[in-house]
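Z., the sequence and structure:
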Amino acid sequence: MKLGIHRIPARWRTILYWFLAFEFFVGFLTKFWPGETFFGPAYAEKFADWGFDPNMRYVVGAIELVCAILLVIPRRQTRFLGAAALVLLLTGAVTTHVIDDAPVYEEVSAPLHLVIMLCVAVANWPTDVRQLLRWGPGERRTA
């Protein structure tokens, strides 16, 4: 008997992955946007206020873009890698927002997305780490 996310119909899982990818794509856009965003001041100012180099926003935005793309590729390996990378990125975001005493929406958003990405990573967890290295057209089953 399958448990967890695999009990959700494939169509709804696909919609969920696309929605999550869209959210991180918006994150990518706002990091690269030169001025104020609908989330407040420019990310160059935010990163400087947090004590980071303002150009780090490009690195964070690029990671968000790559991970968003990985989430929508219909392979467990890519979804796992995208979610795992986002777990690392969001751990830093949660830490930054907690230390900075950020507004409530930032203090709720980052931990919520961290929990969601942990769930996505666990749902796509490979049964064998060697599966992450298999990129052939079909997945081999082992006894």
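The two ends are 19 Å apart (CA to CA). Residues 17 and 72 are 6 Å apart (CA to CA).

Let me know what you think.
H.
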